[in-house]
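Table 4 source record.
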Amino acid sequence: MYRIQKAYYTGTDETKVRLTLQEPYRDFVVSFKGDMTEVDDEILEQRAIAKLAREFNPSRALEDLAQRQEEQEQSIKSILKTITLAKDLSDDQKEEILSRYEEYQENKEYKEGDKFNFEGRIYEVIQEHRSQRTWIPSSTPALYKEFLDVKITNQDGEETEVVGEFKQPTGAHDAYKKGDKVSFEGAIYESIIDNNTYSPSGYPDGWNLIEG
């Protein structure tokens, strides 16, 4: 694995990433648009290697990069495999996830950060309140948002993230936070900014493509 150094330069709105490998020695500097300092090192390494492979002509030096890229892509996909709760889980997997959370209840005092399951989905409370019959979690974005940090573990101990479909935020109260992942038009994206109210197609600079 390469040693990663990354620095964001406000004036140019770019992040320079330095990849250093000791054995055999390799040293590359790659530039990305926007602030990439919070992106996971493994993902950033993969993207930097892919960019190098695209920008340079094939050579013996880059054959090593291409091979490493392929190996890392397989590894990262196994670690960061993402699936959507609504479509890709088996009934048993859905039941296991939903069983971790209490059922939604009417006329109950909910605090910010509380989580519950409702109609096969997990929701997080974003504003303290007493629940009412007319405040349906799936259609009251001022009070609830779908919880995006759900994971399952298989028998081999491999962890899989469960990612929800992108839903257009209606304001700051249900905007996506930095690190939130969504499924959008067949691909998985991660928000790289806080208070993100745009879709990946509406503001590409606000999202990183993870899979797809």
